[in-house]
Amino acid sequence: MYNKKYLGVLTVLFGLGFVLLFTMFWACSSDSTGSTIVQGDLSDPAFTAVRGDVDDMVDSILHNIHNPLTNPWGFPLDSTTLNDPDDEIWWGPLNPEDSADYDYSNGWHTMYVLHLSASGSEIYYDSMAFLVNGHFWESPAPGVEEIWYRGSYSLNNSTEDEDLVFDFTTRVDIQNISSYIASAAGTAEMITTRSYTEGTSDISEQFDFDVTFDNVDLTRDELGSWDEYTQVGGQFTADMTYTVETTEGGDVEITDQEWVIEVTFNGTVSEIKATKGNTQWSFDHNL
For the residues of 26-65, what is the DSSP string, one character each? Predict the structure, then answer.
């Protein structure tokens, strides 16, 4: 015969367990629903505020992957080369107030260039190394199998409408450049800050991209040259922080947005997914 008191305790415990189980199930279901990705409207102001900078970031990353393939055969081995206005290189020509310095050490060709103008300045600090069979090769001649590129670019520019500060660092290792398809891997950081006045408010916008890429493939053009590329393959991701600081009178308001940018290269088009929270915007960008 069952003890009625004991049976009552079991009944209470069973009831509490059922309630707890139901609560956990409901909470998990709620979390699952809350994390469901929804497709965003491409005309949404939250998206249009960042799309232009996302497009620029994709172009800049691809430029710094591709440019080392085309430039090494014209990499200046003497900074005086920059004074030739017909020399098609990244940094030239130099104006009278500009300065430049070239150095070669431990396998690395390094170029420092400072451009000055009435509205601001540009600074390039680029290094490039050429490898054959895993060994540094001083001359950037045909037969080189790998290129390592380390680039740093800074821009400060002021106009009546806005002040612009742009900093871009890139680390790229490119392999298989003696074949028809080269493959690049590396990292980059790109920070753009714009300051301007809107009505009675002073506004500062900053886009900070941290980029990681692996196995981005570029295919030579129809003539077998790296001057242009016919196809791009691979993908990369970027974490973007978008910060807006608004100052009006003595009041300062700061908002931060965290985004994840996923880029897939498909021929001459980049397929982009930009995600903030549980909203994702999908769009194409022509390369």
Answer: HHHHHHHHHT--EEPPTT-HHHHHHHHHHHHHHHHHHHHH
> Between residues 250 and 39, which one has the greater pLDDT?
39
| Cis before 68? omega within 30 | no
What residue numbers bound the domain in which 66 lies?
Answer: 42-286
Answer whether residue 27 is part of any domain. no
More confident residue, 149 or 12: 149
Residue 80: per-residue pLDDT: 60
Report residue 47: phi and psi, to 5°.
-85, -45
* Helical ranges in 35-189 per DSSP H: 45-70
Q: Are 203 and 195 in contact (CB under 8 A)?
A: yes
Let me know if residue 36 belongs to a domain. no
Instruction: Report if residue 163 sits inside a domain.
Output: yes
What percentage of the chain exceeds 90 in pLDDT? 61
Q: How far is the C-alpha of 106 from the C-alpha of 137, rounded, in Å?
A: 10
Half-sphere exposure of residue 204: CA atoms within 13 angstroms, side-chain side: 12
* Residue 268 Cα distances to 89, 150, 157, 221, angstroms: 24, 25, 31, 12
Q: Are 129 and 143 in contact (CB under 8 A)?
A: no
pTM: 0.84
Q: How confident is the model at residue 86 (pLDDT cuts 50, 70, 90)?
A: low
Is residue 26 in some structural domain?
A: no
Number of neighbouring beta carbons within 10 Å of residue 70: 15
What is the total count of domains within the chain?
1
